[in-house]
Amino acid sequence: MFARLRSDIQTILDRDPAARSTWEVLTCYPGLHALLLHRLAHGLWQKGFKWLGRFVSHVSRWLTGIEIHPGAEIGERVFFDHAMGVVVGETAEIGDGCTIYQGVTLGGTSLYKGTKRHPTLGRDVVVSAGAKVLGGFLVGDGAKIGSNAVVIKPVPAGATAVGIPARIIPSKTGESADVTSQEKKFSAYGITLDDDPLSQAMRGLIDSAASQEHQIALLWRAVETLAASRSEADCVPDEAARTEHFEAGRLNDLVGK
């Protein structure tokens, strides 16, 4: 028990630069208190003391602002950061090393008792502030859920989900979506370098349009040169056709390059 508590405290010290000491974490972090009370409630729930488990979880919610159903399963080194308003449903499963921020809901969309209604988070998943993960599906290892995203379908391992409803950005080389080096780093709030698929699509269209205008300008210059060599003045295009006016750099700045 104490070894697990030490692991929980070290996890918070590693992931939160505002944490200055073990004593501060032990006394001032409601996410840690919610985890400790959940382990008590979950133990009672598994032993058949359903009402008592629910009562402990109710007291935990009142004390910490974090609502975790006693039936939920939570792994090692899980960090509820700030976490006011977090709701974790009965059949939810949270894997080792996950980080969950304030306002997150791991909710269910089915009303049938005894079924898997809530999501399963794999290892090292980051669920950012305000995100809603709704349904009995899997969020793969190392995935990231963007702030305020509404996820209603499975997320592959290492991918990032953003938007309403969430769109999936595939992982790069099997790692998390923001990996730029061999060293795997923790991303606070799940922030990534390329976190908006619509912006990526817009940048691709802008670059393609700029490339096409450049090619057209080169073709018109070639036609002009050929026409001049044959003294065919009527074939010479207007100045606008030989000059590029597409402002790709400015448009890329607008969409967040």
What this model shows, in words?
- With 257 residues, the chain is α/β, with parallel strands linked by helices.
- Helices cover 38% and strands 13% of the residues.
- It has seven helices and 15 strands.
- It has helices spanning 2-15, 22-28, 30-46, 50-64, 197-229, 239-242, 248-254; strands at residues 67-68, 73-74, 79-80, 87-88, 93-94, 99-100, 105-107, 120-121, 126-127, 132-134, 138-139, 144-145, 150-151, 160-162, 167-169.
- The strands form three sheets. It has a six-stranded mixed sheet with strand order 3-6-9-12-14-15. A five-stranded parallel sheet has the order 1-4-7-10-13.
- Strand 14 and strand 15 form a beta hairpin.
- Helix 3 runs antiparallel to helix 4 (50-64).
- The longest helix has 33 residues, at 197-229.
- The radius of gyration is 26 Å and the shape is elongated.
SSE blueprint:
Elements: H1 2-15, H2 22-28, H3 30-46, H4 50-64, E1 67-68, E2 73-74, E3 79-80, E4 87-88, E5 93-94, E6 99-100, E7 105-107, E8 120-121, E9 126-127, E10 132-134, E11 138-139, E12 144-145, E13 150-151, E14 160-162, E15 167-169, H5 197-229, H6 239-242, H7 248-254
Helix pairs in contact: 3-4
